[in-house]
From TrEMBL:
Pathway: Cofactor biosynthesis; nicotinate biosynthesis; nicotinate from nicotinamide: step 1/1. Pfam families: Isochorismatase. Residues 3-180 form the Isochorismatase-like domain. This is nicotinamidase. One of its GO terms (molecular function) is metal ion binding. Keywords: Hydrolase, Metal-binding, Pyridine nucleotide biosynthesis. Its EC number is 3.5.1.19. Coiled coil: none annotated. It is an enzyme of class 3 (hydrolase). The keyword Hydrolase applies. It comes from Amycolatopsis albispora. Belongs to the isochorismatase family. One of its GO terms (biological process) is pyridine nucleotide biosynthetic process.
Length: 184
């Protein structure tokens, strides 16, 4: 069985993806629909504190994007503003001097293990930060991992060649499906 992990498809990040945002939402929604049709579990990560926000997040920056097809379990992760990038981390930061990633595994690890899945597909935003961290941690936890680039967007895109994070992901054992070579 395969599980789908949808990383940080929150208003803030979809907006930061700019012109790529709507296409990524549409591609992620296709993956969600296919996973649900197969009976595969779907998990959505939501960074509870990606940046410093006004109290109560009045603009809904951390809310899942309204066009996102949500048919699965939403799990908290983060805070990204302190280095909690992986969907598997829940790192409450109590003191400013606490190191990045301080804390431990969040609920995703146990929920995913409970499904019996042996592989995961990781989609969402941002390819070079939270998607990559989630994919690497899934490999460390023993899963076969695939990242289809057509359902991701970069926070820090590069021009004139392949993004360095893709080589790092491949070296970690992640299967990266390039946009050009992706077929349905």
């Amino acid at each position: 069985m395969n599980a789908l992990i949808v990383v940080d498809m929150q208003n803030l990040f979809v907006d930061l993806a700019g012109a790529d945002g709507p296409a990524v939402v549409a591609a992620v929604n296709r993956h969600v629909a296919e996973a649900v049709e197969r009976g595969d579990p779907v998990f959505y990560t939501r960074d509870y504190a990606p940046i410093d926000l006004p109290v109560g997040d009045p603009e809904g920056s951390t809310s899942l994007h309204p066009d996102l097809d949500v048919r699965g379990t939403v799990v908290e992760k983060g805070p990204g503003k302190r280095g909690g990038f992986s969907g598997f981390l829940l790192a409450p930061v109590l003191e400013p001097q606490q190191g990045h990633g301080g804390g431990g595994l969040g609920p995703l690890a146990g929920l995913l293990a409970g499904t019996g899945a042996r592989s995961v597909t990781v989609v969402g935003i941002a390819t070079d930060i939270c998607v990559a961290a989630t994919a690497r941690d899934a490999v460390r936890l023993g899963y076969d991992v695939t990242v289809p680039l057509e359902a991701t967007a970069y926070a820090n895109p590069v021009t004139g060649g392949e993004h360095p994070v893709l080589g790092e992901l491949r070296a970690a054992g992640v299967t990266v499906l390039d946009r050009e070579n992706f077929s349905r």
